[in-house]
Amino acid sequence: MVSRARRRIADHFTVQHATSADDAVAFVPQSRIERSQFERMLARGVVREAGEGRYWLDIQAYQGEIESRRRKLVPIVIILTVIAAGLILLAYRG
Predict the structure, then answer these.
(1) Does the keyword Membrane belong to this entry (predicted)?
(2) Residue 2 above 90 pLDDT?
(3) Residues 9-57 pLDDT 10s
(4) Contacts of 61 by beta carbon, 8 Å cutoff, 6+ apart
(5) What is the count of structural domains for the chain?
(6) Are 44 and 61 spatial neighbours (Cβ–Cβ below 8 Å)?
(7) CA distance 63 to 14
(8) DSSP class of residue 31?
(9) What is the pLDDT of residue 23?
């Protein structure tokens, strides 16, 4: 749900081509999760305020955050896959 909310927020800005301060648009979160993710993105500089309640998406910061998340998740997925394979092998032998 969190990643879906983040994508909806990013999509809102990209669809309206709000990727610079000159093209900033208004944004109103539609749910509690969307509101918390929007505030998080704003605090991290992924979404930036242009003033007067208008915001824009910093594409480079957004891509950087995606890459950072990917670097953290890939090793976890590999470890879980190896554990699952080990459990399958143990069950097969037993």
Answers:
(1) yes
(2) no
(3) 999 999 999 999 999 999 999 899 999 999 999 999 999 999 888 999 9
(4) 44, 45, 46
(5) 1
(6) yes
(7) 13
(8) S
(9) 92
Closest CA to 55 of 64, 63, 45: 45
CA-based angle 42:56:39, to the nearest 5? Answer: 20
Number of other CB atoms surrounding residue 9 within 10 Å: 25
Domain membership of residue 58 as a residue range: 2-93
10: tokens are: 């990013």
25-26 and 47-51 strand pairing = unpaired
Task: Record the tokens describing residue 50, joined without a space.
Answer: 């242009």
Match 């944004």 to its residue by tokens: 27
Predicted confidence band of residue 92 (pLDDT cuts 50, 70, 90): confident
What is the C-alpha separation between 40 and 35, in angstroms, rounded?
A: 9
Cα end-to-end span (Å), the chain? 39
